[in-house]
UniProtKB/TrEMBL annotation:
GO cellular component terms attached to this protein's record: DNA-directed RNA polymerase complex
UniProt-recorded Gene Ontology molecular function terms: DNA binding; sigma factor activity
Name used for this protein in its record: DNA-directed RNA polymerase sigma-70 factor
Pfam families named among the record's database cross-references: Sigma70_r2, Sigma70_r4_2
Domain RNA polymerase sigma-70 region: start-end pairs: 23-91
Species annotation: Persicitalea jodogahamensis
Gene3D superfamilies: 1.10.1740.10, Winged helix-like DNA-binding domain superfamily/Winged helix DNA-binding domain (1.10.10.10)
InterPro entries: RNA_pol_sigma-70-like, RNA_pol_sigma-70_dom, RNA_pol_sigma70_r2, RNA_pol_sigma70_r4_t2, RNA_pol_sigma_r2, RNA_pol_sigma_r3/r4-like, WH-like_DNA-bd_sf
């Protein structure tokens, strides 16, 4: 089903729950992995993904359809992930570098990543990036997201996103070649 069909089913009180379940089944995995690349930890990513769909359920009536449904969900996931990291920094009174150090430790103990040396090295390189560059790199490299869609999600101009991606790839390349 495409977005229009899903939304039409959602607007019908008799098929609303079914339609939302279909939306969750369609987008849950992609949302989870996007969140996971930001927060690293599986349990945190699960919690945030659940929160994303709760927020979506509560706000879907207000969805205007100006963007794709996935872009809208991605924006919610983006905001929830960033807010989670900010709360974590404030809650523990730690500077961003310490949060990134904690994320790097979680990477090493993650059974999905820890055993793959190349993937681990790439993820550690990504964690050295400033937050904005890390997000842009993840969206572009892993999600293959067009800059225009990224712009909708982040509220940043396409030109700035391209520059961020360029600098992110350069820093990752430098990190990977300097640690050989």
């Amino acid at each position: 089903m495409n977005d229009e069909e899903l939304l039409e089913l959602y607007r019908n009180p008799d098929t609303r729950r079914n339609a939302f379940n279909q939306i969750v089944r369609t987008y849950q995995q992609r949302v989870y992995w996007m969140v996971r690349k930001i927060v690293i930890d599986h349990d945190d990513a699960n919690d945030i993904t659940q929160e994303v769909f709760i927020k979506a359920w509560n706000a879907l009536d207000k969805f205007r359809g100006d963007s794709k449904l996935y872009t809208w969900l991605f924006r919610i996931a983006h905001n929830e992930s960033i807010n989670f990291l900010k709360k974590k920094r404030r809650r523990y009174f730690v500077p961003i570098n310490d949060v990134e150090g904690e994320l790097a430790e979680k990477l090493e103990s993650d059974p999905l990543i820890g055993g793959d040396e190349i993937q681990l090295k790439l993820q550690k390189a990504i964690l050295t990036l400033p937050e904005k560059q890390r997000l842009v790199f993840n969206y572009r490299y892993f999600e293959e997201m067009p800059y225009e869609e990224m712009s909708e999600i982040t509220g940043t101009s396409v030109g700035a996103l391209k520059a961020s991606y360029h600098w992110a790839t350069k820093k990752i390349e430098d990190f990977l070649t300097s640690t050989d």
